[in-house]
Design brief:
The complex is a heterodimer. By secondary structure, chain A is mainly beta. Chain A has one domain (2-219): Alpha-Beta Complex (Fumarylacetoacetate hydrolase, domain 2). Helices cover 13% and strands 36% of the residues of chain A. Chain A has helices at 21-26, 56-59, 105-113, 167-177, and strands at 2-3, 6-7, 13-17, 36-40, 45-46, 52-54, 67-69, 71-77, 93-100, 103-104, 128-135, 145-150, 153-159, 185-187, 195-197, 202-207, 211-219. The longest helix of chain A is centred in the last third of the chain and has 11 residues, at 167-177. Chain A is globular and about 50 Å long. The two termini of chain B are 26 Å apart. Chain B is mainly beta. Chain B has one domain (2-222): Fumarylacetoacetate hydrolase, domain 2, CATH 3.90.850.10. The longest helix of chain B is centred in the C-terminal third of the chain and has 11 residues, at 170-180. The radius of gyration of chain B is 16 Å and the shape is globular. Classes of the chains: A mainly beta, B mainly beta. At the A-B interface, strand 4 of A face strand 4 of B.
């Protein structure tokens, strides 16, 4: 996977849920006492200026016809690590980038409502745009403007200083459970303002000091076989 | 990358099926699913035959979380990149079959399910995905739905069933999964566990056996020992 000029080989993508309190409120979720993690699989990854494909099986089903944007600050793991201390966190981070956690919202709500895993709704092909580049030296990743526009209109606008669990806590907590490998992607959660996207929409996700990740949404074409 | 018998595979994801044997559905009192229930495990969980399963201290030393379960499963390995595979074509896209042990931090999973949180951390701890001892080819196993499946702890039979009791069969799973996601060569699909799940403790030896494939043997050890 090429992100800007860097090639990364992620073995996993781990996302935080409910890490901005205003977003937890808009989802009618409790504010978590410890970080909530889920994973996305690498089939969802696409780059800057590639298409987000809206699957027909969602588009043509009126109960499932809702796909949302969620802009997130992501960091990339630099070296293999387990049980790390929060104070050392910068040593294990290759850099920062923008991640768009595209979510089939109605499918997620349906699955969650019957206590099923958050998997399929998060992992359609192309549901994980990343980029436009990896920025190495951000001294304070907890003071960056984060924003998402659809067709030029601002939909999400916040600052990473509103994150409930900050990066040192996230990496400490996560590496307490699992080994992190070079290239692994950790997405730190989305602020409030999530909402639906439609085929034809142009999404611009921006984080201060990183840049803008641009992706257009298109409807899945059915290939005649 | 993981070596299974004489084959090396390079999976990008592990997809597991929850509640896919009628006897297991009855013991867990979960509803009978109308479509396959999918959840992922991350690759850090993979270990081979004879590698130790590491019981994490953060579970062992926490009275509320101290329960780790075995779950023997028939797994199949994807042969080539594929999407939208029809039932009649599925065996062209499967490399073979193996034994998978979906080791689970049960109390942590139950706690997360009841809070409608993702099934992630309880399933993806390091070493919680033993696989092997070999990959049996499609030619060796003409019918994957008539295989004895068994698991022993310290020589005592704990799970004993037959893959004919799978609710969603291999073609159903393959068709469903590839309708959602692109699968890559080496990807692992674990088809679910039969009744009889239960706890293991450090020192236990787990033998997971499927007819025509072989026995996957792993000893449980406490982290740090």
């Amino acid at each position: 996977m090429k992100v800007g000029k860097k090639d990364i080989f992620p073995s996993k993508i781990i996302c935080l849920g409910r890490n901005y309190s205003e977003h937890a409120k808009e989802m009618s979720s409790d504010i978590p006492k410890e970080p909530v993690f889920f994973c996305k699989t690498t089939n969802c990854l696409i780059k800057n200026e590639e298409y987000i494909i809206y699957p027909r099986l969602l588009y043509e089903n009126e109960k499932l016809n809702r796909v949302d944007h969620e802009v997130e600050l992501a960091f990339i793991i630099k070296k293999r690590c387990k049980h790390i201390k929060s104070i050392d966190y910068q040593e294990y981070i290759l850099g920062y980038t923008i991640f768009l956690d595209i979510t089939a919202r109605n499918m997620q709500i349906e699955d969650r409502g019957i206590n099923l895993p958050w998997y399929r709704s998060k992992n359609f092909d192309t549901f994980g745009p990343i980029g436009p580049k990896i920025v190495e030296n951000i001294k304070d990743p907890h003071n960056l403007k984060i924003e998402l526009k659809i067709n030029g209109a601002i939909k999400q606008s916040s600052n990473t200083n509103s994150m409930i669990f900050k990066i040192p806590e996230i990496i400490k907590y996560l590496s307490n459970y699992i080994t992190l490998n070079p290239g692994d992607i950790i997405a730190t959660g989305t602020p409030e303002g999530v909402g639906p996207i439609q085929p034809g929409d142009l999404l611009e996700s921006s984080i201060e000091k990183i840049g803008t990740l641009t992706n257009r949404v298109i409807l899945e074409e059915i290939l005649e076989s | 990358m993981i070596k299974i018998g004489d084959k090396t595979i390079n999976p990008t994801k592990i997809i597991c099926i929850g509640t896919n044997y009628m006897d297991h559905i009855e013991e867990t009192k979960l509803p009978v699913p109308k479509e396959p229930v999918l959840f992922p495990k991350t690759l850090n969980c993979l270990i081979g035959d004879r590698d130790p399963i590491i019981y994490p201290k953060l579970l062992f030393n926490n009275r509320k979380l101290k329960r780790v379960d075995y779950e023997v499963e028939l797994a199949f390995i994807i042969k080539d990149k594929c999407k939208d595979v029809s039932k009649s074509e599925i065996y062209n896209h499967i490399m073979g079959y193996t034994v998978f042990n979906d080791v689970t931090a049960r109390r942590m999973q139950t706690k997360d399910i009841l809070s409608q949180l993702p099934w992630f951390r309880s399933k993806s701890l390091d070493t919680f995905g033993p696989i092997g001892p070999r990959i049996a080819s499609i030619g060796e196993i003409q019918d994957p739905h008539d295989l004895k499946i068994e698991l022993k702890v310290n020589g005592e039979v704990k799970q004993s069933s037959n893959t004919k009791h799978l609710l969603f069969k291999v073609p159903d799973l393959m068709e469903y999964i590839t309708s959602l996601f692109t699968m890559e060569p080496g990807d692992i699909v674990a088809t679910g566990t039969p009744a009889g799940i239960g706890p293991v403790l450090p020192g236990d030896i787990i033998e997971a056996t499927i007819e025509k494939i072989g026995t996957l043997t792993n000893k449980v050890i406490l982290e740090g020992e």
